[in-house]
Fold this protein.
Amino acid sequence: MTTAAPPEPPKERVGLSTNAAGNAVPSAWQRARARVRAEDPFVGWAGSIGVALIALFLRLWHLGRPHEFEFDETYYAKDAWSMLHHGYARDYVDKANDNILAGQTTGQWKSTPEMVVHPDVGKWLIALGEKAFGMDPFGWRVSAAVVGALMVLVMCRLARRLTGSTLLGCIAGLLLCFDGLHFVLSRLALLDIFVAFFILCGVHCVVADRDWYRARMARLVPEQIDDTRAWGPVRRLLLRPWLLAAGICWGLACGTKWEAVYPMAAFGLLAWLWSAGARRSFGVRWSVPRSAIVDGIPAFVQIVLVALVVYVASWTGWLVNAHAYEQDLSATQYTHYAGGKDWPTATEPDASGLGEVTQSLRSLWYYHHDVYDFHTHFLNDSTHTYASKPSGWLLLNRPVGVAADTDIKPGTQGCDAPAGSDCLRQVLLLGSPAVWWAGCLALLLAVVMWIGARDWRYGVAVVGAASTWLPWLQYDDRPIFSFYAIITLPFMVLAITLAIGQLLGRSTAPSPRRTAGVVVAGAYLVLVLLNFAWFWPIWTNGLLTHSEWMDRIWFTRWI
């Protein structure tokens, strides 16, 4: 009698096919089919909103101080008020700043348009605050404070979506909340906090689309695809609501500052590659070129073309008043379009109906040409005290002083400095070293984890940081400032959060590894909080003696 050979034991899967506990990881198809919420959504939202409210409280605290135009507020606050009342930015009279701060807000604008070099979305948001609270420092800063707090909320939700952990989501929000650069920009009527907010929203929408796409495909595909000629579902994946939302966000971001074009392009490509990866995981062969057609083209329409429509729509006030720009700004001292000649539309008869729309759009195109010329040529020979090389921004090479009241004598304004010394107040655009320096290290880890461990979540941090920072290197021959890196900060925070998640591990069961991770992560968060408290006076115009101020200025390049 012949004895049957015993069955071979199943082969164990190792590496990426097993989790930390040694259990087999389901296929991407199985994970998409069985996608569930890891934690209670109510707890997640409650924690995120709680962190955002802390951020809002800190940013509204004494928001109207100092009672002055800080740095470039002198442009954006007045432009916003003019747009609110005239539909477009008008030039202003001499001593307008002094008159406005004294409470006189009428009669400060001329009838001629101002040559503005950034789009209008951020200024319209500033105008909302001025409409609600008046033309004073609190009024022109309150929109930035609200958007800064909302950005913390989006940071919480994005990190939670990537990690599946409410705790890590709240940690990400707290890191952003307690960063000095984000804090100060949330208390200024500048454009950078707005563009950073819309970029982060756009990224969140693209990440949410990745989840939506895979879950949708799992519902449409009953089983793994075995046909080598199959493309997978097409028609029912053409309309992707999260990508439409992303297009709107990217349009608003570009409508605030043009720098948003780079991350929009990077994450648009990432959305296509994620779609190709999803198709491959479901069994589609040659998924990258096939996805380029069935996913890439629709994604381009829903992200880029929708963003373009939103961007042009954001210039409505300009378009309605295009005749004023054609008359007064078609050739200016700042630009060299067509050798300094007037725009062709300046000498054309005024059209009507659809022809007027076309004429105004052509004028807007010429205006964009002039603004681009201003940014790329006119500023090349300029200098500025606080200008810095972008290669050192992430290391906090050169902060920007936006307000200062120096040489306050002992016995005046509460100054208790010793004889022979003085006091001062300052608002400095400086990031928290505990966040930025740790963020640089975390980004290096993110590169390793993205490439080595093929963890797509780290790719969000790496692509986001690269697309918001590296493009600035090509403009280091003109005056640019370190606070432009606010658009890179969320991705540094995300890298830190993912690194903390790696420290804590997946399992919540007590273990030496878990205990060590909790201790290290907790100590780091305490360090960030202490760092925030230490620099608080130089972020909030606090009164300091000269020696107290020097204790916070760690490097001579920070002066």
